[in-house]
Structures are given as C-alpha cells and as structure tokens.
Specification:
Oligomer: single chain
Number of domains: 2
Number of helices: 13
Strand content: 25-35%
Helix content: 25-40%
Number of strands: 19
Structural class: alpha+beta
Largest sheet: 9 strands, antiparallel
C-alpha cells in the first residue's frame, strides 16, 4: 500500500507541478516499457487534471541496442518520415511532453561507436526543429525518472535486483521531496522559493564573469552575457504563460555564459553518462570560449563526439550553480544519470544556450543571440564540476570581487 501511495504522489507531482497539466493541452509520455505500472498512475493523474488526451511512446533500450548492433550505418541513418510528421503534429497541437528516464546508463557500452554516433546524429538532425518549441519553453516539458532493475544494479551492484530497485525508488523519492506524511507540492513550493532567492541575489549583481578554482585542477573564468538572467526551477510556457518545472529533481540556478569569453581549464568531478557510455576523469581547456584541448581516462572518443557534434558544440551554453551540500550530493551516490548527477554538483553545459537566460529573449533571432554571446547548437550536454573545496568569485563590471561560493557552497 505504501508503494502505491508514494507512486501516486510522484505521478501527481509530475502532472501538477512538472507540466502544470490542464484541460487545454494533450500530453505525450516517453517511457521505458519496464515502467508500465508507474505510467498507468501518471496517465490517471494527467486525466485527473482534465488533459485532452495522453499518448505513450514506449521504448525498450535492449531492442534499440539490437537495432543498432544489427543495422548498417546506411540503414540506421535513414529515419522514417512518419517519425518527423508525428513530432511536428504534436508540436503544432501544443502537446506537453513528459520524458521518463530509466534505462541502463551503460547499455550501449558494447555497441559499435561509429554506428551509434551516426544513428544518434541522424535522429538529432532530423528532429531538431521539432524539439525547439520545448527547448525554448514555448511548450511545457518535464524530465523525471523511473527506476529499472538494470539501472538500479549499476548504482547498487552488491544488492539483489529487487533490493536495488526498491532502494533506488526510495532515493528518488528523497530527491523529489516525497514522503508519506507531507504534501509534495507544498515541499516543492518551499524548495523553489529558496532557489528563487539565490537566483534573485545573483541577478542583482549582473556579474561580468565568474572565476572557478578547486584542488582537482579547475582554474576557469566564465564570462556572462550582458543582461543575463539567472533562472531556477520554474519555466514559463510561451504558449499560455503557465509555469512548469522541467526537471524533477532540481537543485540548480543557471544562466547564460558568453560563448567567446571562457578561459582556462575545468576538471570534471563526476562521471558523465552519454549515449549509454560513461566518460570518466576528464578535463577540458578553453581559449576565447572554444574547447582547445581535452582528455579523459575513460570515454575520450565519446567526449570528442560531444565537443565536435556541430560548429557550436565546442562552446559553453550554460553555467549552473548547485551547493555541494545539496540533498542529492549528500546521498553520496553516482546515479550515472545527468538528471540527478547535475543536481548534485555545479555544472557547465557544452552546446545550446537557453533563451530564458537573457532579457527580452523573444526579440532575438538565433544569429542575433550568437552575436550577443549566446550559443545555438543541436547539442546540449551538462557535465559536473562541483567539489567540496570549490571556490567561485563573481567579478562585477567595475572589477569588484564578490565571493559566491566557498567550500563548495553559496556564501549567501
């Protein structure tokens, strides 16, 4: 009974807070087949919010792996047109989108890298224009997670599959402020208020740049665009002006770096899961905003794929601040999922900027945004850099140095 109660609370949180479900929107859920039980609760929660309809895109990582392993590059890169039409129609009809993650984070480790990269790039290139309404917050979207046994075993290898799954459910509920006694929405309203307060303080300074240092070897200066905005948990739909929360969980405030004013070296503090492969112990060096050198003990070729994905994926598009003593960090787990690991650590993102992070964003074309220092790319890949000894200083436009982080946490 407890299991069902918590699942229903989680489903209601995604429906009500995540996408702010209402009678004027239809919803599509993308989910692993193993998550069918939770998806049924989520579908019911959405209908309880009076949505028009709920569609489900089921995915099976194992079948996807088989497809890539047994297909030629020429076949894998020939994407059926109906996939594009389906996504175009959904965007046209203002569908809200819920993405439930849960597949084995190392599922594609044994797959031929060239074939996987070719398939992934073909999908991104073909569907990029259909994803822009969500990336630009025209329509509501929410990424959350549902545990699967394969993912749970990666995190808790010494437990049985059932024990690992139950433990991962418990940990996810903790990160999403869900328990039996309290109202999850109320908990989130308090949490969002705290994040908003940090963003408000950062916005008041309008720093010219941030300087990062720690004992891992990070020594980095990140310029910020003029009139930048620090955002937090909530986004605003351009379609109807309603709030939504795109990431559950979330512990970050984030803004727009200037793509040409990043200098120095940054060292990753956590592994990065990308394309079913872990990239570990890596560093990246920037000059005039562009990646000029990098290395990784594990997964270097995959890191190179991210950096060279397109003309602008070698520049930064996001800078995000997360306290070292955040709830997810204090769990002392490596989730091997960016959704969780990025919310346990300060992070940066290679590739696309979020338009919400600059004042009057609707006035600018992609080209004008790039001229202002933003970044337009088909890639957006977060990587974690926060540590217990991370120091961040904000530099004002008149050269004043303001402490922002000490010992991995906000000063204010």
């Amino acid at each position: 009974m407890k299991k069902v109660k918590l699942m229903k609370k989680y489903a209601a949180l995604i429906a009500q807070l995540g996408i702010n479900a209402n009678s004027k929107q239809s919803v599509v859920i993308s989910a692993p087949v193993e998550a069918y039980q939770f998806v049924r609760y989520l579908s019911l929660a959405l209908y309880n919010c009076k949505v028009k309809s709920v569609s489900i895109d089921w995915n099976d990582g194992v079948c996807q792996k088989q497809k890539i392993m047994h297909g030629s590059i020429s076949k894998l890169t020939k994407i059926p047109e109906w996939i594009v039409y389906k996504e175009e129609e959904r965007a046209k009809e203002n569908y809200a989108k819920i993405i439930l993650e849960g597949d084995d984070p190392q599922l594609f480790k044994s797959v031929n890298g060239d074939k996987f990269s070719a398939y992934n790039k073909a999908m991104v290139d073909l569907l990029y224009h259909t994803k822009k309404p969500y990336h630009n917050n025209e329509l509501a979207w929410c990424i959350a997670a549902v545990p699967t046994k394969a993912w749970a075993k990666r995190i808790f290898p010494n437990m049985s599959p059932t024990q690992a799954l139950q433990t991962l459910w418990k940990k996810i509920y903790e990160t999403c402020y869900i328990n039996e006694e309290e109202d999850a929405i109320d908990n989130w309203e308090k949490h969002i208020s705290q994040l908003d307060n940090h963003a408000k303080i950062m916005n008041s300074y309008q720093f010219k740049e941030l300087k990062y240092k720690n004992s891992l070897g990070t020594d980095l200066s990140v310029g910020l665009v003029d009139n930048h905005i620090w955002g937090s948990a909530r986004g605003v739909q351009g379609y109807n002006g309603n709030y939504f929360v795109p990431n559950l969980p979330t512990e970050e405030i984030f803004s727009m770096p200037h793509r040409q004013r990043v200098e120095g070296r940054v060292c990753a503090s956590r592994p990065l899961s990308f394309g079913g492969v872990l990239i570990e112990d890596f560093w990246i060096e920037f000059h005039e905003g562009k990646v000029v050198a990098f290395d990784a003990k594990v997964g270097k070729s995959k890191l190179e794929e991210i950096i060279n994905f397109d003309d602008n994926s070698s520049y930064l598009g996001e800078v995000a601040l997360v306290p070292y003593d955040s709830p997810i960090s204090n769990q002392n787990l490596i989730y091997q999922s960016t959704l969780f690991d990025e919310n346990a650590s300060c992070h940066l993102a290679l590739g696309a900027s979020y338009r919400e992070n600059i004042k009057d964003e609707s006035k600018y074309s992609d080209e004008e945004l790039n001229e202002l220092g933003g970044n337009t790319s088909k890639m957006h890949c977060d990587f974690m850099i926060g540590t217990k000894d991370l120091t961040i200083d904000g530099i004002t436009k008149d050269g004043k140095v303001v402490p922002v982080f000490r010992d991995g946490n906000f000063v204010f």
